[in-house]
Design brief:
single chain, mainly alpha, 98% helix, rod-shaped
Length: 126
């Protein structure tokens, strides 16, 4: 083989080795890209799942809050009703007390008049 042919063969071998190295490098890059995409997809799926769970928890909290507000409103209404009934009972008791006092005053006054009349009658007939 001549020197030129030998150089040509070596150059082709070097080019083939470089091409093979380039192909291997590209394959490694593609594999790395696939791995990165798979990781990204897994993280995306975890994020989606976490967001779904967060939304469900938020909905549950809103429902709890709504129920608590309904219970609070019901208790507030019962309290207002009880206070109104108590006020009505207080007014009725005050009115009854006034009626009894007035009745007692009238009886006392009537008894005084009757006593005074007896006293006058006794003085006149005694």
């Amino acid at each position: 083989m001549r020197y030129n042919q030998l150089q040509q063969v070596m150059a082709e071998r070097d080019r083939a080795a470089a091409a093979q190295q380039h192909v291997a490098s590209q394959a490694a890059l593609l594999e790395e890209q696939r791995r990165a995409e798979a990781e990204r997809d897994a993280v995306q799926q975890q994020l989606q799942q976490a967001m779904t769970e967060r939304d469900q928890q938020h909905e549950a909290l809103l429902e709890e809050q709504r129920q608590a507000e309904e219970e609070r409103d019901a208790v507030q209404q019962q309290l207002q009703q009880a206070m109104a009934e108590r006020d009505q009972q207080h007014v009725a008791a005050s009115q009854e007390e006034q009626r009894l006092k007035s009745s007692a005053k009238r009886k006392k006054s009537a008894m005084r008049k009757q006593s005074a009349m007896r006293y006058r009658w006794l003085r006149g007939h005694g």
